[in-house]
Amino acid sequence: MRSGYGASMPNGRPLVLDDNATGAAAMVTIPLFALGWAAVGALYLTVRVLAALHAPVAGSELWSLSGAWAAHAGADDARFAGALTQAVAAASFAFTESPLAARFAVVILGACGMAVAVLRLRPAVGDGPLLTAGALLALDPFMVALGGSASALALDVPVALLLFAFSLRAPAAPWPWALLGAAVALSGPLPLALAFAALAAGLVQGRFPKPSMAAFTTAGAVVGVIVASFGFGFARVGVAVPPADLFAASFDAPWSTGAAGAMALLYGWPVLAAGGGSAVWFLLRWLRDGIEPPPAVRLALVWGAIGLLWLLTAAGAHSWAVVPAVSVPGALVAGAAAPSLWNALYTADWRLARVAVPAAGLLGASAALFAFGWAFSRPHGSAPLALVLAAGVLAMVALLAAARPTRPAALVLPLAFGCLWLVAMTGRAAAPAAPEPLYSPAATDQGRVIRAAALELAAGHGRVAVHPDLVDAVIWPLRGSGTILVTDRPTPDVAVYLAPVEVAPPEGFLPLEGSWALLRLTEPPDTPRAILRWLASRNVHPSRDVPVSFAARPAP
């Protein structure tokens, strides 16, 4: 079978099952691509459902849910941006205080959007490249963390891929563009970046949007902005453009304890490397050999360039939400290059490589054994020996890359290492331990204890009050606690007072025994030893709680 990128894929053969249970031959033909899509779809849903069930409320989701709860309660909060996912969360709070309902609603919406995008992309891209890209998107840890959350950014990837599909294969009728325009207006900045990329790519090639398409898209976007500005009926937020507002927030909102650049390298380097390497390969063929990339690749390259500029600009910001702006188009470009990579591996000279590749893999495994032993100060550990063995691996890979017939085989070990790393990071995103940098800052489980204790102590004795510096931090953990007074000088009717730990309890209040915290912070590992320890055991990585002062007025 020929893929949509002109390269032969070896998985077009059907799987034939012979059923003779009734004595008659019944042939059931199942295309291998169908099995592949079933596997990728199951993987996509499984990891996101696991994340929805097990991930703490953290990062951009904590920020978004705090704003959604404030809107549900009728309070003003700048964190309510009017995004669709925030409206879903605010609506779910009418019958539950748990984030699970909103999370599962978003997972279902995202899965439906991805399915429609895949159906429209298959004729334009081909099953082989799209399956590879789909597997990378399903496993990307940042997309797992977003896709299993109720963050305001949770639907960015599905909406962006719908826009990508519609840009390549426009629908016959113009009305779907109105829905897509509204979806882009009610999402985060990722689809907006693609919209700019599609417009720029079209203008460079002299292609202009059809008047009907432009009119319907603009009308849908305007309706989306109006709906967002009225907060879906929950809270009027003024003129709100969620993609622009959330883009600005990605630079200064506390969505991550680690910086965007560090988090991208720690969790997402396999997808970024695959996309970057594939992009360089396509560009070199274009410039050197005059082989123009397919339309989907050209659009993904422009989109990725905009995302890379955004990532470089926000590399020091405490928000990894920018990383998918590079990894999503990177996955699409890597998928497009996959058929050619497969053919290169299939036609490579394996007479030397079949010995060198396993030998290099054995050296790499030995290097890892000594490196992990050194990280945990065990007797068999040795950093110098690990470095020597790693140098041997690099030398063997370089030897394979030096000869043209064996050059494709030099990619086997990097691909295997990247796949192992990606699967490990996906597991951390789907079933995180408590100290997980991907989910930081995170709401502590103790927040529920603080809420219950505060309500019990204040019952019949007065009100709950918080210091102004803690207002943003208490919205989510103290949800459902009634009206809370915000003051730095508690009035006589205040029975319970929460403040930063450096603020002394007001006169007449006694601090409650114990350590109290509303937030947990987990920094990413920043040294080779710390990274190795973090890779080997998720529970040894340090985290710290942000303490608060919890004081109560003695009951009369």
3D structure, described in words:
By secondary structure, this protein is α+β, with helices and mostly antiparallel strands. The protein has three domains: 14-340, no CATH class; 348-431; 444-552, no CATH class. Helix content is 58%, strand content 8%. Mean pLDDT is 90; it is low at 1-11, 15-19 and 21-25.
Element layout with pairings:
Blueprint: E1 14-19, E2 26-31, H1 32-54, H2 59-72, H3 84-92, H4 100-125, H5 127-139, H6 141-147, H7 156-168, H8 175-185, H9 189-204, H10 211-229, H11 242-252, H12 260-267, H13 269-289, H14 295-313, H15 324-347, H16 350-375, H17 383-402, H18 412-430, E3 442-443, H19 446-458, E4 463-466, H20 471-474, E5 485-486, E6 494-500, E7 510-511, E8 517-521, H21 528-536, E9 544-552
Parallel strand pairs: 4-5, 4-6
Antiparallel strand pairs: 1-2, 3-8, 6-9, 7-9, 8-9
List descriptors:
flat; 3 domains; 58% helix; two-stranded antiparallel sheet; alpha+beta; 556 residues; seven-stranded mixed beta sheet
